[in-house]
TrEMBL record:
Cited Pfam families: AMP-binding_C (PF13193)
Provenance organism: freshwater metagenome
One MF term in the entry's GO annotations: medium-chain fatty acid-CoA ligase activity
Entry's Gene Ontology BP terms: fatty acid metabolic process
Family: Belongs to the ATP-dependent AMP-binding enzyme family.
Keyword Ligase: yes
SUPFAM superfamilies xref list: Acetyl-CoA synthetase-like
Record protein name field: Unannotated protein
Keyword field contains Transcription regulation: no
Domain AMP-binding enzyme C-terminal: from-to ranges: 99-180
Alphabetical UniProt keywords: Ligase
Length: 198
């Protein structure tokens, strides 16, 4: 049955999975939200009562979350779509960067990509992409042309609000030897220059 649900992490073996919006209301099947687990077993973060408290269901039902975002299909198979910590809030709109990363990484001129929120005076945050291109642009004009091409490509496949407003290029993105992208390192560069954080 798992083969009929490619990309899924499977079904809950113990306990019940709930997908909730920001207020803790359950969302319909197929809609993304914060993943909560209802189980007799509970956990606490070691020496971090605030983090433990923030991992609890806002409606006090005893459910817990690890901060993952995802959805359930009609057969209750769970799909992970992003981490809540990476969510971008731009003008009150919640944007999951994984959506635009999935689009951009399929562009033939892109090797690797990281999408995250950067400071915006009017909207709080805006969507930024940092791309490792197949070939680094040789001039500012080439970089500008590739930036426009990638933004247009994203907008062909995704709502404008979810697409980057700007793209920077790097010869390589910071990754752990296991392949984990160090998105926080990139994001911190932009936020430290702003002198504030979200």
């Amino acid at each position: 049955m798992w083969l009929a649900h490619p990309g899924s992490v499977g079904v809950a073996i113990q306990g019940v999975v709930h997908i909730c919006d920001e207020e803790g209301n359950e969302v319909p099947q197929g809609e993304s939200g914060t993943i909560f687990f209802e189980s007799e077993a509970s956990f606490e973060y070691h020496n971090d009562p605030e983090k433990t408290k923030s991992s609890r269901d806002p409606k006090g039902r005893g459910w817990s979350t690890l901060g993952d975002v995802g959805y359930l299909d009609e057969d209750s198979f769970l799909y992970l779509t992003d981490r809540k910590a990476f969510m971008i809030i731009s003008g009150g709109v919640n944007i999951y960067p994984q959506e635009s990363e999935n689009i951009l990484v399929n562009h033939p001129k892109v090797v690797d990509v990281a999408v995250f929120g950067v400071p915006n005076e009017d909207f709080g945050e805006e969507v930024k992409a940092v791309v490792q291109p197949v070939t680094m642009p040789a001039s500012a004009e080439e970089a500008s042309a590739l930036e426009k091409e990638l933004i247009a490509y994203c907008r062909e496949n995704l709502a404008d609000v979810k697409c980057p407003r700007s793209v920077d290029f790097r010869p390589e993105l910071p990754r752990h030897p296991t392949g984990k992208l160090y998105k926080r390192i990139l994001k911190d560069e932009y936020w430290s220059a702003a002198g504030r954080s979200i």
